[in-house]
Amino acid sequence: MNLKYFLLLTASALAMPAASYAESFGFENPGITSDPPQGEVGTLQRIALTYDGQQGVFANPYQYSITVCREGEEESLMGATADTDPKQWNILQISLERTLREPGTYVITLPYGFVQDWDYAPLPESKWMFKVTGNDDSRIEFEPYVNHGADISPRQGVYNKIGEDFRLNFDYESIGVNNAKMIRMIDDETGVVCGTFSIDYTFTDDGLAVSNQFVLKSDREVSAPGSYTLQFPDGTFYRSSDNEDIGAFNFRYVVSEQGQVYAPDPSYSFVYPSSSSAVRQLERLVVTFPDFETARPSLNGNIKAFDATGKEVGTGVALATKEKIGKNQVPVIFNPAITAEGEYTVIISEGSIMVGENGDTNSKITLAYNVNPKASDPSDPNSPYDNRGVTIYPEQGCYKSLNTFLLTFDCDKTGINFSNMIKVYNDETGEVAGTCGIDYGAKFGKEVTADVLPYMNKPGTYTIVFPQGTFYDYGKEDEPEMPIYKFRYVIAPNGEVVNPVSETVLANPASGSELTSLKSIDISFPEFSKIERSHVVDQLNIEIKVVDKNGETVSEGILDQTQAGLSPNSMKVNFDPEVIAGGDYDILFARRVFILGEDNERRFNEDFSLRYSIKSSGVDSVVTDNEAAPTIYTLSGARATETDRPGVYIIIDSQGKATKLVR
After folding, report:
1. Of 411, 340, 370, nearest in space to 276 by CA
2. DSSP one-letter code for 481
3. What is the spatial distance between Cα 575 and Cα 554, in angstroms, rounded to a whole number?
């Protein structure tokens, strides 16, 4: 062998950079790339394989299986599943049965024929090598979904595996189910379906269906570590009383080797009507223990109701009867019913209810209710609609007229899809009576304003419909859509009059003053520490305008936000054009020109007005030769003979109306 050639080869090898090891580590798989790439990983549980040049790839687990072995060994440590990515069909998502954490080098083999191409032709074998270091501090963070009025057993949480059976509970008395809807368990990372579900009612001792409790059965058990979402599409369930669809909702589960083993929990209860609900009267509650098959009253029950002052106003009695309710449900009756409007607290003391067959008892249950004669009642066709997670002002009811609304969401970061059309329906005819414009409120992310065009002022019953997806939670990574919202209003001559909370406004010069002209004023809100210019316009009005005694607009106000020499709760308003003709004038400020208050307690201003008189001046006392001809003045008040030269002119017609002309 040529010694010089040998030395050159040796020197070249020694000079290779360290990255070359990583590049050469593992197996050659032409046309396929893995995520993560072959090499060092802290732990390993999922692999995404991308097949370049393939339209789609599909697994054939019926004839072949994936093996996971230590390097140099043939014994398989575990199996793995594979699913085509639903968003990109040439990607195969591989999930190991459990997470590889023990340090070592592992080989994952997909045998010949396990993967098939678009035409179901077998693809060659591929091998993938990973060196597991065990140094992975990352953990899946668990954040449950909030579903008002629905709950599930096992409850959302972190488990070592997800079983095949679930029990779903609602706080409506009667629920219908649409079996055509597909209920699925979704892998949050890959979007792959990890299970589908059949659904059925639970049954009473005498074989009757419990109309608000369901049993779900999955076609498989999920044991691979990861985060999963149990999805119920919009319209899977509906209220039997009025056939109104219940919107989409989800439950989240995390599977982890360190997760808990599911076990029944006597402290876990579900009550309908649910806590924080508005009810017309406090008469009957039903307490459900989702983790157990049975529940019944104990001999030492103690159930009390208290008003807002803490005064005891009622005693609840737990009944043993099971009429129309499930075996794991217990009714609580208040006799007489609590009907006085107000806020109430109900306390079901520990040990009031026996659960299961082993002598377990409930933990203390504290509930809050708002008794309101206007509360939603699905059995009443004229009842207000029940909208979980959002309130509206004015509240649903009977009014003389309406034109603006404020929606407040439980969600901290509410987004708006402005492409959705919000319609107002006449309930009697079904026709569209108007539409709504919407925008963000003063508490950005929590509030939404809505203006109705035309005004709701013709007698009748109306429903405002915000379609599903009009709002979404942009605080969540996947920005889940919010359900459809409906609000019912009656317009009648004897209806209520909406009296918004007004604010004190001071002006400089003071309202009522006589001025030589109206060029600018300063306004302040003494009840608030600061104000800001709002960028959410009142869609029904010009923001700031000056009107004469005939109601004609002669000028518009422009806010000067420089704040030079002004306090934080004051702002200057300039008028364009300057009003110089003698007479009485009103300055009208529309709603939402200003945001009032500090960041945590902000709100928009309501409409208000100021009045000024402008005394007669040389400008408006000049008599023209022809009363029908307009009179022209410069901004300084001098009469102009022509407007051909560049400049700004004030033109006053025979009626005294001033307009601005810019040349």
Report:
1. 370
2. B
3. 10
Q: Report the alpha-carbon distance of residue 361 to residue 254 in Å, rounded.
A: 28
**Smallest Cα–Cα separation from 516: which of 616, 656, 631, 649?**
616
Looking at the DSSP assignment, which residues form a beta bridge with residue 366? 347
Range of weakest confidence among 292-306, 527-541, 599-613: 527-541
First-to-last alpha carbon distance for the chain, in angstroms, is: 96
Long-range contact pairs involving 298-303 (C-beta distance under 8 Å, separation at least 24): 298/351, 298/352, 298/353, 298/354, 298/361, 300/351, 300/352, 301/349, 301/351, 301/352, 301/353, 302/348, 302/349, 302/351, 302/352, 303/332, 303/346, 303/347, 303/348, 303/349, 303/352
Query: Residues 438, 421: contact at Cβ < 8 Å?
Result: no
3-state secondary structure of 12: helix
Residue 596 near residue 602 (C-beta atoms within 8 A): yes
Q: Going along 479-638, which residue ranges are E strands?
A: 485-491, 506-508, 514-515, 518-524, 531-533, 544-547, 553-560, 570-579, 583-589, 594-596, 603-604, 608-614, 631-634
pTM: 0.67
- What is the β-pairing status of strands 608-614 and 514-515? parallel
The DSSP 8-state label assigned to residue 600 in this structure reads G
The three-state (H, E, C) secondary structure of 246-289, written as one string? ECCEEEEEEECCCCECCCCCCCCCEEECCCCEEECCEEEEEEEC
Candidates 432, 418, 497; CA nearest to 463 is: 432
CA 301 – CA 353 distance, rounded (Å): 7
Rg value, the chain, Cα:
35
- Give 30-34's long-range contacts (Cβ < 8 A, gap of 24+): 32/126, 34/128
Encoded tokens for 498: 């909406």
Residue at 41: amino acid letter: V
Q: Identify each DSSP E strand in 13-122 by its residue range.
A: 32-35, 39-41, 44-51, 58-59, 67-70, 80-84, 91-100, 104-110, 115-116
Q: Is the pLDDT of residue 130 over 80?
A: yes
For 33-74, what is each residue's pLDDT tens digit? 999 999 999 888 889 999 999 999 999 988 899 999 999 999
For 607-629, the pLDDT digits (tens) are 999 999 998 754 444 444 445 56
Q: Are 68 and 159 in contact (CB under 8 A)?
A: no
Q: Is 515 helix (H, G, I), strand (E, B) or coil?
A: strand
Give how far the C-alpha of residue 587 lies from the chain's centroid of Cα atoms, to the nearest Å.
39
Nearest to 349 by CA among 283, 313, 303, 300: 303
Neighbour-count burial of 281, counting CB atoms closer than 10 A to its CB (0-12 exposed, 13-18 middle, 19+ buried): middle
Distance CA 66, CA 109 (A): 6
CA distance 508 to 612: 11
C-alpha dihedral (98, 102, 103, 106), degrees to nearest 10: -40
* Number of residues that make up the chain: 663
